[in-house]
Amino acid sequence: MNVSSKVASIEGNRLRLDGGAMFGNVPKELWKKWHTPDEFNRIGLATRSLLLEKAGQKILFDVGVGNFFSKKLKERFGIDEVEHRLIQNLEERGIAEEEIDAVVLTHLHFDHAGGLLKEESRALHFPHAEIFVPKRHWEHALQPPRRERASFLPELHTLLEKSGRLHLVEDALPFCDHFFSDGHTRGLLHPLIETDEGLVAMPSDLLPGPAWLGSAIAMGYDRYPELTTREKEAFLERASQEKMTLYFSHDPEWTFARVEKKEGKFSLC
Hints:
The protein has eight helices and 15 strands. By secondary structure, it is of the alpha/beta class. The strands form four sheets. The protein has a six-stranded mixed sheet with strand order 1-4-5-6-7-8. Strands 9-10-11-12-13 form a five-stranded mixed sheet, covered by helices on one side.
């Protein structure tokens, strides 16, 4: 007997990051046509969570940036909302944070995992949720390379270790299939979720949004840009052949879309 599954996009706090860093070696004259920069050269980005309701459980994939940052850092990253937007939007759906059964983090960068941190107490949100993190990525995050160090939150690592709710994913994930990539960061997890409407894939920072569909485009934040481009192209080939629905974590406009390949190029369909 098949278990009914449904997913929904839940918006978190939005932020702004440097457009040049987000598009790597793509000239500004080109990328500014896709995302308009502000006076500080930053582009607006969403931080979304995917809510899966399955077999009576509520599972969140990623938790956005949250609102734990100091006022200075909120200004630096253009985080305008004072409240924790993800929790507010869950409450508007009639779901309290205490009702979340599990949180799956694709990786531990602050814009995907920061929503776990409470602003004042430095305790964890979602107090009853089991928390799943890719094992290879966890090990990487505990001793990150210098170039990536600022993307992590050491206080979060400590709280997760002390919580008694941390599960490190090596192979099986209880809720869905998945695969890993290593170009953006080591051990980035990509959920593949069977729903009543078909397969939903979460490419996370392998593919932040439609503007990054070009196979040669990689972010300046990627550890291994050339590996990112190869991993992304392999993923898009599979996604187009299997007619997956892609869920974009960061694009301010596009949330769900499918892709097709025509004359060697991928585009939305």
